[in-house]
């Protein structure tokens, strides 16, 4: 390993650490794969370093991102404007981010074709999720009562219009900002100043990298790397102001925008990349200016830059298949770079079968949990039910853990607003018990649950309106605004109402835990009368102490997922109730809400907020994962059983209730295995499934890795909607993943 | 009419083409030394014990009418000799330490359960396989089940060892799209030594079945010490290559996953322990069969 430090000729700029691997003789030619292997090795080092620096006790229960550990001698201190040393508002968000961009170390790995990387999580430090100046204490009591995650202060989680960015370039975006600043002069000056300063900061950092690439090329001894650095410099100089004109420049432009966005506030909306980059590829290919190998290499370099959410395939506005060469190249690129990635393949009934098979083949070969699969028809038909056109629905790309959004025109708070159905159930149960009617029943309890759920949803709705009213004053989306339709034109942050569509995502969590609890009460308290209401509550309040048999009795009731059971019926009913309450009316401010079922990584903390439950769950144990039934729902927890269950609870309005699935690796190697899985995926979507995340994992390996994670540093798993290195997860989270995986296998 | 069934397994991918559900019938006319589903052999319900799951609630002691569950100086004891297989203890055990294997199910109930995956069958060219044990010990039930499945346009497969009267095969033949047929040994004495019966009827039935033209997939359990020899496989290959409707041959490497079940049935140590055949041998077997013009289903492990 060869480490080199570069010092700029300019006194103002500190150039960061550049690490390269010099594994071969300098005279031997490096292939694209050699370079990708080198990049991957460096990423492994960064991952270990990040765990040490940023993890909690060395663990990191989140997406594996492209954050690069900064050089030890670099630091960043923002200017503050709150009494407790934080900053809020357009002016300081803009000024501070500009300062960060201007002082951010250079990052160029000469093995990569793409300049840039991010070393600082801007929104984490000093910038709060909220400021007490904007008081919503009137909501606190109910939010606490139901353990609501209201989303107030939530950031990003929407999609941008990359087409616009690639057409205008950073120079064109700056012109646009200046134009509308003039038109709206006096109305939103601080907003436009903030946007302008961020754009100039972006241009500056690109220029600095271009200059650094030239410096590095001057001392580079390996011929093809020297050439690569010079091309990098040229491309970056070109895109400082002009829109990209080649595929390579377009990928570099995309990389810069996404790196700048993720550094600002963790945005991961890579978008429908095979669509927006395709014109550039086609033009270069037709002119003989690019080979497919080069294109794949650039995409692989992009994938390792950050773990962004990209969508491939899907349908055009006329329903035709959108699959093109870049769709295949993205799959191939992920296969070659072999780091955590989040590509999602949008499946429809006429999808190119070859890409389905290739994606499944690599899913099994690489065992990286990528791609995920989203159902085009089910998502589109659901979204249309909100009153939108099918043409519009088809543009709504999968750009997050479990969500889709319209590019540049829809604000959603996707994956940020959560209602713990278990917390609501617990409140309802205790309320019901304390006011027990003459003939108590599971049905009677259900009515009470629905009543409390309505209060929870109404409180969420109020919170959403509150967020929309004030978020612009806290932490505006200064980067993502640039590629949206409305914020620049109207002079206001996207959160404040400047785009056309506000479809607020409201997710329910813990459906299996609640459904099984209802099922257990119906059988054990109702039909079989094994317990009274008094004895049931006593068991819950004592967390089944000295009552393991009783706990197992409750646990033994047929669960959601077993097929045709009472718990299955309750799960369907809960989904319908939740959906109808969410869809009954918009927020008081008129914002449409769309229900989903997804816990993200909240499975553990949401479980910790609630005591024992009637399904035999011990106090503070995790809730179920997403929309999946609890492991052990049947003798063998078959994939078709899981699929049938999750399909049955789809809310059906264009947001997802994902299925998380595991397959044994040998299955994909055996003859016909890939075809069977491809068929399974297509059938799941045709049945109405929306999203499918698949892990290919060896049971013995995952158990060994759980015991000694440090021995498996490169084991990647799809945790929920995101991929992560298994070793980087906390013990609790690893246990959750293991429980689900081992039972499924 | 009810059938005696001990399991229904969804997402079966090794019991015929496509995504399938396998219905396992209880009762077998063979007693193979390597059987990995020993609970399939008896046609009666049976208690299986997994005492490592026991939580010590003592309910089985209280409820057993035969006093078959005891606590002794050596720990807990379950006396199978006394047990009537009445199911009282299993009904009262929630830890899974004592379970009853096998039970009656109506055709309607089976069809209801297997129909849940019908869309998966259709897209993957899969369906339902009736296996066991030996399903053709309950030919009338299997026939009725297959008729219902065919009415629902579900592909059907019957997995048989062939050691039944041919009339039982004929009963289900019109409703079976594919037969999975076991061949264990060509030498009848070896066959008898390790399965309890000779192979004359089995081979004769195969010949007769083949004359009907229905597709047949041959399954060969490869057991070291029994038939895991290339000369034995060659005899099988010579025999099978004469038939025109053998759609494929599927050599199945022995595995020891049934050992835990033997213990649960109080039969630990009652069967010989075999070795798992080496990968090299399996590949040689695949190649030998293919050289005889047979289509072979190869497994990666």
Please explain how this structure is put together.
- The complex is a heterodimer of chains A (745) and B (301).
- Helices cover 49% and strands 9% of the residues of chain A.
- Chain A has 745 residues and is α/β, with parallel strands linked by helices.
- A 6-stranded mixed sheet of chain A has the order 3-4-5-6-14-13. In chain A, strands 9, 10, 11 and 12 form a 4-stranded parallel sheet that branches.
- In chain A, helix 6 (223-241) packs across helix 7 (247-265), helix 15 crosses helix 16 and helix 18 (511-527) crosses helix 21 (566-584).
- The model of chain A is unreliable at 1-19 and 22-26 (pLDDT under 50).
- Chain B has 301 residues and is of the alpha/beta class.
- Chain B contains 11 helices and 12 strands.
- Chain B has helices at residues 59-63, 88-92, 107-114, 118-124, 139-151, 166-172, 188-195, 200-210, 230-240, 259-264, 279-291; strands at residues 2-12, 20-25, 46-49, 69-72, 75-78, 98-101, 103-106, 127-132, 155-160, 178-182, 216-222, 246-253.
- The longest helix of chain B is centred in the middle third of the chain and has 13 residues, at 139-151.
- The two termini of chain B are 40 Å apart.
- The A-B interface holds A 548-549, 552-553, 555-556, 563-564, 634-636, 638-641, 643-644, 666-667, 669-673, 675-676, 679-680, 682-683, 686-687 and B 7, 9-11, 13, 17-19, 21, 55, 57, 59, 94-95, 112-113, 116-117, 119-120, 122-124, 297-301.
Taking the sheet with the most strands of chain A, its summary is: 6 strands, mixed
Task: Please give the most extensive interface between any two protein chains, plus how many residues each contributes.
Answer: A-B, 32 and 28 residues
How many individual β-strands of chain A? 16
Oligomer: heterodimer
User: From the alpha-carbon coordinates, what is the Rg of chain A to the nearest angstrom?
Assistant: 26 Å
Q: What's the total helix number of chain A?
A: 27
Number of helices of chain B: 11
* Major sheet: arrangement of strands of chain A: 3-4-5-6-14-13
Classify the beta-strand content of chain A into a percent band.
5-15%
| Morphology of chain A | globular
* Helical proportion of chain A, percent range: 40-55%
Low-confidence stretches of chain A: 1-19, 22-26
Percent of residues in β-strands of chain B: 15-25%
Q: What's the number of extended β-strand segments of chain B? A: 12
As a percent range, the share of helical residues of chain B equals 25-40%
Q: Mean pLDDT score of chain A, rounded? A: 92
Terminal Cα span of chain A: 40 Å
Main β-sheet, spatial strand arrangement of chain B: 7-1-2-8-9-10-11-12
